[in-house]
């Protein structure tokens, strides 16, 4: 059995007083295919933005390849991985043949 490549633990995201993500957890190994489904406004995009490091979670941990990823804002307000060697991210543009149902 391969080790977890992505481990999300008790992720929370709040916008002001509105909690969008309430303790979401996920474990994924290399090669896993995962679908995230839910109604409009249920937090799917927010969850993906958090694990893609486009938004900083309010609470919880994101562990990639065994390393806890910490996000900080740079002088321009952009989110950056605190330790540059801790993560390698792969992003796919929407037109790469991957579709959402």
UniProtKB/TrEMBL annotation:
UniProt topology in membrane: Peripheral membrane protein
Q: Name one GO molecular function term.
A: ATP hydrolysis activity
The places in or outside the cell where this protein is found are: Cell inner membrane
Q: What positions does the domain ABC transporter occupy?
A: 21-75
What InterPro entries does the record point to?
Answer: ABC_transporter-like_ATP-bd (IPR003439), MetN_ABC_transporter-like (IPR050086), P-loop_NTPase (IPR027417)
Keywords annotated in UniProt: ATP-binding, Nucleotide-binding, Transport
UniProt-listed Pfam families: ABC_tran (PF00005)
Q: What is its main location?
A: membrane
Q: Establish whether keyword Transport is in the entry.
A: yes
A GO cellular-component term linked to this record: plasma membrane
Q: What is this protein called?
A: Histidine transport ATP-binding protein
Q: Which organism is it from?
A: Salmonella enterica I
Give the encoding gene's name: hisP_1
């Amino acid at each position: 059995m391969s080790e977890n490549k992505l481990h999300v633990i008790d992720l929370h995201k709040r916008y002001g007083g509105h909690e969008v993500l309430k303790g979401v957890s996920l474990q994924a190994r290399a090669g896993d295919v995962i679908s995230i489904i839910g109604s409009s406004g249920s937090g799917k995009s927010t969850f993906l933005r958090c694990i893609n490091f486009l938004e900083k979670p309010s609470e919880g941990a994101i562990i990639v390849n065994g390393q806890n990823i910490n996000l900080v804002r740079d002088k321009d307000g952009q989110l950056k991985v605190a330790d540059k060697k801790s993560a390698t991210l792969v992003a796919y543009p929407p037109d790469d043949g991957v579709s959402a149902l």
